């Protein structure tokens, strides 16, 4: 996602300038985020944390296929997700609201914190081999002022939709007397405004409202480990983002273990054909650590299934 370490794409002098300017950029005051625990362990990789609500929207398989670009519509590997007790006639869309935090490369804050909302399609047979699982995202809501992130994501062929987020610097905020958590996205057509810019409209284009529950239904934590570690591609399906989500670090174990959630989400075009509210959706809120390898040929990730206990589902 982040173009910082890809020296082949950025001239050395420009890379040095970007590293200097972004290192001095202020980081978000994220009260729901934990520090990056692996920055010194992997100094030459992009690393960071993603504090997110990751929910599973179970829809009919024909509906899911209608949302995908036609060339991917018949690439769903139903047998790959039925092992998570999901019926083959349904499909697990993944809706994630998140803040990427403490993103580091060579011990500098390589990219300023940023919020996002995306709809992801996991378990796709991009390579046509019948078993290699990839996930697709066509659109993503981002703040319009984080140019490094926007450029990095657009290189994968994803369409960036400029947006204002409430809260602007956290994964969610308390609502309804602290009984619920919410996240709201507003359209923002400005290309130079900050994350705190007043939205163009009081009418949100997307929103989520969740409450905590004791367990993690309808699927196990291994499902979330699996989908967050599938290589990610956009409409440029030749290059993939190998973002490795680690679920065994200090950000997502012990007191910070993933928490089950249930609630509703409203999303609008172009993510779906018409404004739709999905109710009774379930998922988790968690702060996962990641290590990232950018702009890899998708073919090189054939058969990818994680690398160890922390990221294999």
Structure in words:
This protein has helices spanning 12-24, 61-67, 78-81, 147-154, 221-227; strands at 46-60, 90-105, 108-111, 114-124, 134-136, 139-142, 159-166, 173-175, 180-187, 206-213, 232-233, 239-246, 259-267, 276-297. The model is unreliable at 4-25 (pLDDT under 50). With 313 residues, it is mainly beta. The relative contact order is 0.19. Strands 1-2-4-6-7-9-10-13-14 form a 9-stranded mixed barrel. Strand 13 (259-267) and strand 14 form a beta hairpin.
From the alpha carbons, calculate the radius of gyration and give it in angstroms: 18 Å
Mean pLDDT: 87
The description of the largest β-sheet is: 9 strands, mixed, barrel
SS element count, helices: 5
The helix/strand series, from N terminus to C terminus, equals HEHHEEEEEHEEEEHEEEE
